[in-house]
Amino acid sequence: MSLKKIPKNSEPLFSSKEISLIVEKVGQELTTHLKNSPHPNEGDTLFVGILKGSWMFMADLVRKVDFPLQVEFVRASSYGSAKESSRLVKVENMNGLNIKNRDIFLVDEIIDTGRTLLALKKLFLEEGARSVKLVALLDKKSRREVDINADFVGVEIPDAFVIGYGLDWGERYRDLSDIRVVS
Ligand code: IMP
Ligand code: MG
Predict the structure, then answer these.
(1) Which of 14, 108, 145, 167 has the most ligand 1 atoms within 8 A of CB, as the residue to mutate?
(2) Residue-range domain boundaries for the chain
(3) What's the topology of domain 16-34+41-79+86-157?
(4) Is 110 exposed, middle or buried (0-12, 13-18, 19+ CB in 10 A)?
């Protein structure tokens, strides 16, 4: 019997088997895209995971992408006034990242308001990326507050709080292998 704890007020949304099918689909789409894009130099393709939530998705995703790529991680968190519309995104671990003229794929486990991915996309373009594409496992489209969409999406979900497979609730439940909705 598993000693892992799951919240009582939660219901399964995607089993680990369903997650791997979704990840495989995203991996195939990325493979097709990469094979059909020009690549002046090997090493141009850089997948950047957004910590902490994306680490599990990233680990599974890169194994499903049939193309040479490199992996880095940055940490992003939102801060600022409690008023959500004025939230700012703080990015850590950008130092020493080689971005110039590279094709960046920002990988996040979920796109919600869109503020994190918008801020990071802007930052990476300012730092000289040749292109920036956005990859998200889950998409809460109805929650978007800024004009941005992911280029590669696993699955759209309704406006609900989800945990597991990297997603936390107060730093807990990131280690669950399935994704659950908290009510
Ligand atoms: P955004 O900037 O609002 O698009 O959201 C960015 C981050 O909020 C995501 O990368 C997650 O870390 C976190 N987040 C958004 N929705 C959820 C959720 O339902 N469960 C856990 N974390 C979430
Ligand atoms: Mg995140």
Answers:
(1) 167
(2) 16-34+41-79+86-157
(3) Rossmann fold (3.40.50)
(4) buried
